[in-house]
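Homework help board

Subject: predicted structure for assignment chain

Our instructor gave us this sequence and asked us to write out the predicted structure in token form, then describe one feature. I got the tokens but I'm not sure how to describe them. Can anyone check?
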Amino acid sequence: MMNTILESKSAELSRFQDALDAARAKGPGPYDALFNAPPEGMSVHEINADKILTRVSPAHERLLGYPSERMTGQPASSFVILRESSEMAMSRKLSGSGALEPYVRAFLKADGSAVTLLLIDRRKLDAAGKVLGICTVLTPMPSPPATGTWTRPPGFPGTAGPGGSRASS
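My token output:
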């Protein structure tokens, strides 16, 4: 069931990326209007080839608690929990190699808490096909459905069984 929800959310993000691409083709006015007013629960940002946030939708404030003005001009990875992993992934994407698949990333909110977001990237290219940056559409990850109580498998630390020990809590 969770995979179906993720596929549905990914499809919504892809449709919005398609709408952004179509608006960009019409000119800066239509693109700016869509960029600044994404569908409810979504946001969008752009980074340049130096991995710096160059544009941030006002909707980021609802998701992360930071005003877009505070995020713009900052390294994109400075708002991510696993910064090194984020840096490596951005470098790969900016190099132009590999397909861009939906992914999940944990972000640090302004209040110090974390939020897990589902993201989809599109490379921004110049007329010659050189990567100029990345446009990212994001939304909060849906919570997994409650399926009951998790049972530790035999051997899992903290349980009795082969390789395991009963831990006192």
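Reply (TA_rk): Your tokens look well-formed. For the description, you could write something like this. Helices lie at 2-26, 28-36, 60-64, 68-71, 83-95. That's the kind of observation they're looking for.
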